[in-house]
Prior knowledge:
By secondary structure, this protein is of the alpha+beta class. It has two domains: about 1-215, no CATH class; about 230-285, PGBD-like superfamily/PGBD (Muramoyl-pentapeptide Carboxypeptidase, domain 1, Orthogonal Bundle). About 20% of the residues lie in helices and about 25% in strands. The protein is built from six helices and 16 strands. The chain has helices spanning about 10-20, 90, 185-200, 210-220, 235-250, 265-275, and strands at about 1-5, 30-35, 40, 45-50, 60-70, 75-85, 105, 110-120, 120-125, 135, 150, 160, 175-180, 205-210, 230, 285. The strands form four sheets. It has an eight-stranded mixed sheet with strand order 9-8-14-2-5-6-13-12. A three-stranded antiparallel sheet has the order 1-4-3, covered by helices on one side. A three-stranded antiparallel sheet has the order 7-10-11, with no helix packed on it. The protein starts with a strand and ends with a strand. The relative contact order is 0.17. The mean pLDDT is about 95.
Amino acid sequence: MAIALDGLSHKLEAFLADQSFRCDATGPGTAQIVMFRACRQNKDGSLSVFGDPLKYSGRYDDLLVVFGKKTNGARYLACYEASAKPGLEWIRHSSYRGSNRGCPTVQPGQYKYVRGMHGAHEALRQAYKAPVCVIRDLDQDAKLELSDLVDYPWSTGINIHAGGTSDWIGYNSSGCQVIRGGWGGAAWKGFHRIVYTVTREQNVFHYTVVDFAEFGRWHDAQDKTAHRFLRFGSYGKHVTALQAFLSRAGYYGAAMCDGEFGRVTDEGVRMWQKATGQSPTGIVEQLS
């Protein structure tokens, strides 16, 4: 499966809408940021599946896609070799051993980011009190397992910033989302220009993490109704319907049906999935 870049921004807008996600790329001077897990860009520019989103290779196996409109209204799209997963060195680091927290890996969903500092460098940071859903590798076996701890940190700074220049992530990420090439590399400079100059009037960036294979199945489907899901960060009437269903099943408070798929909804979904013998992914099909 290979997906061409031509028309990709329009397809991504449609995909985000189908998943009940927010899309920022609606007017001049805007950017939408999507991390495709297990994806690479081929020599002809097309995108294809690369690796396994549930395994840690220690390499840059993911692709960060940024699209939107310039200040003159012209569309743009850029792709950057990246990683949504931490380096193996941090997963196995002694600071996490026996800590009952484990190294975090951001899970599929949509999250709020803002401009800010990562150390001495300008980057994108988690918006204040805007949690990110992660799985913490408690047993340090470098495998994404649903039996590990699901957590929702909102103040630990799981940021988007430059990674290293080698093939290996190394110590460049202990949970942050990193772009390969270093702080002085062309990739980071290009990304930085988009979020700090092209989109200088945009205050919040809705950052979406999705497995590329899932997007590919949606992309190739004639009937896309079977490929519409809800997960952390989804919003709107479909989320309200899900919350009402969870409330009737005893996994969510009726007074909290607000149409926002956040931590409490995610916890309710996972509890319901476990109770009904399903894999507790936190991802569910939209109710019709």
